[in-house]
Amino acid sequence: MSDLSYVQSVILGIVEGLTEFLPVSSTGHLTVTEKLLGLDVADPAVTAYTAIIQLGAIVATFVYFWQDIVRLARAWFRGITRPDERALPDYALAWAVIVGSIPVALVGFALRKVIAGPLRSLWVVAAALIIWSVVMWLAESRHAKLVREGAERGESTVTMKDGLIIGLVQCFSLVPGVSRSGATISAGLFRGIDRVTATRLSFFLAIPALTAAGLFEAATTDLKGLGIGQMAVGVVVAFGVAYASIAWLLKFVAGHKLTAFVLYRVVLGALIVVALGAGWLTAQ
User: Pick from 238, 244, 250: which is nearest to 58 by CA?
Assistant: First the structure.
């Protein structure tokens, strides 16, 4: 992994930043990109590098949503010490994020070897891209029905139960190709939450999940073997691109359905299947 060039670092940083928060699967895109760059996706160092450059994307969420983070933290601490504050929407939303972050942490830690090994197969990525596209399409159909019925809910109505259910669905994103944001936004839409709120909640849930994954890899991996300079470049590039992606996605979902992402995922999944069948790419 120390042979990773700075050009490759920039490419991987761009791919990470572009796809981490879009519902298209960053892990799937990084796996394909690493294959095209001639990297061994089964190498633990490659897996660790992928997780560590996610820290750039997560710092982007901290910066972009800093005021929201401070607001929710204050609401949570006030609610803990003052019972009269517990009826406020921000207190419930803070608990939704906390509770929703627990399932993926437990499942991700328990299955970390499987996730970093057999599940990195491009056959898995292709299947997950296509299959979860169906879920996203169904979520949009359900959401449209709720909008017609006037049953759509906003951020002030998010409950701890919403957070738990969305957090449980987030566990599916541990399968490369599903997409963490694709899983959480879809779950939010199924729960009747409006698209912008579901997307914002997806970002909030990303903060503890990605931070934990990145720090765990940083603490358990020989960083010298990754190439400190290359890793730093990847993190910085991922930060810049991810920040722009966050702003774009929030603006996009305010007026558009996820249909464009669904079509993209299906086409990409089909192309990967063709490439694997033709021998242009290897699964592992």
Answer: 238
